[in-house]
Amino acid sequence: MFHLTRNKRGHAVPRVAAALLGASALIAGGAVAAEAAPAPAASGPTSAHVCSQAVHPGYATCFALKRTDKKARAMSANDTPSGYGPSDLQSAYNLPTNGGSGQTVAIVDAQDDPNAESDLATYRSTYGLPECSTANGCFSKIAQDGSTNYPTGDTGWAGEISLDLDMVSATCPGCHILLVEANSASMSDLGTAVNQAVSQGAKYVSNSYGGNEDGTEAQSDSSYFNHPGVAITASSGDGAYAAGTEYPASSPFVTAVGGTSLTKDSSSRGWSESVWDTSSSEGAGSGCSSDETKPTWQTDTGCTNRMVADVAAVADPATGVAVYQTYGGSGWAVYGGTSAASPIIASVYALAGTPGANDVPASYPYAHTSNLNDVTTGNNGTCSPSYYCTAGPGYDGPTGLGTPNGLAAFTAGS
Questions:
Q1: What CATH code is carried by the domain that includes residue 76?
Q2: What is the per-residue pLDDT across 30-52, written as a single tens digit (0 to 9) for each?
Q3: 3-state secondary structure string, the chain?
Q4: What's the chain's Rg over C-alpha atoms?
Q5: Most CB within 10 Å of its CB: which of 26, 207, 264, 361?
Q6: Gap between the terminal Cα atoms of the chain
Q7: Residue 134: which domain range?
Q8: What is the reported pLDDT for 55?
Q9: Domain count, the chain
């Protein structure tokens, strides 16, 4: 359903299947951890996509970015992983350290990560989080048909899976986690996996992937993403404003999640955020949809169609999060991309409580704008109207209404 994508310079190019070209980032040796990098070069930290950004029409790509400027070394007992961990995210977004009991956050990704559960166990034990395993009923992994006949493993998508599982753990340590692995990165398989997650009872479903709009979004909306009473999140993309709007983030039935740079500071909050923008071709996605109609709860006046994004969370690899991955990785690494932001926001919804049975939870933040951290600095490109790509007071494309400040913005009611 996605015909062409743009390369790093914004030109349309054919894609080949992401399911066949998942990028590996292998470092020789056993389990290792990222250490603090030396003083960065003038160009700053560097990162790479873990999934191929070239995929066939009808396919999507994942939006995980992995830092490539971190040296690897074995961890000692006194080491801590580089990158933000659970206590950082809980502090930055004013989240409870417990909560989510009885709630299930579903992660939808393509291909199999055979080390998903064991890697998750390492992440959680390292940070002192409760066990989340198949044995205690907290973690489950299924294929898109609900079986345990998992698809073919892919080291690139495994990086995405590790990022997603770790961000749910960091944000909502008490939540159960359901990993649904699609047979491929086709929209039909990924959409089928979304439906499977909902049929399994998940009220919160994170999608850290996307592709260009091509005019068939209405069909996919009705087939896969129109689930009243379920909070479905989708990453806005990593190609900055120049890449155009991504689907399913542009669906009016999902919460489109943009990205920020998150930095500790001396303010009363203790943190500051700006639009994530590494370059003209790497940063939080945003923009006015070409095809999707504007939902009634979205009130910006410069775009008559659906505007992306709704809210945001940390996505800049330079201020990235700690992730543990061994299938295609060598242990601890620092990740970013709006792939990190989507599962964070899905987990905040889970902490906030079960959505109304007939609600589209993407509307909730619009009724609680004062309960968000308004991001007012930075841009992800050049645009007109300026709010499509430039942060300012109130709503803007790259960060939407802002980032979580507690749970109130993600609950029902006005």
A1: 3.40.50.200
A2: 333 333 333 333 357 899 999 99
A3: CCCCEECCCCCEECCCCCCCCCCCCCCCCCCEEECCCCCCCCCCCCEEECCCCCCCCCECEECCEEECCCCEECCCCCCCCCCECHHHHHHHCCCCCCCCCCCEEEEEEECECCCHHHHHHHHHHHCCCCCCCCCCCCEEEEECCCCCCCCCECHHHHHHHHHHHHHHHHHCCCCEEEEEEECCCEHHHHHHHHHHHHHCCCCEEEECEEEECCCCHHHHHHHHHCCCCCEEEEECCCECHHHCCEECCCCCCCEEEEEEEEEECCCCCCEEEEECEEECCEECCCEEEEEEECCCCCCCCCCCEEEECCEEEECCHHHCEEEEECCCCCEEEEEECHHHHHHHHHHHHHHHCCCCCCCCHHHHHHHCHHHEECCCCCECCCCCCHHHCECCCCCECCCECCEECCCHHHCCCC
A4: 19
A5: 207
A6: 36
A7: 5-410
A8: 76
A9: 1
For residue range 391-414, list pLDDT tens digits in order: 999 999 999 999 999 999 999 875
* CA–CA dist 316, 43 (Å, integer): 15
In one letter, which amino acid is 403?
A: T
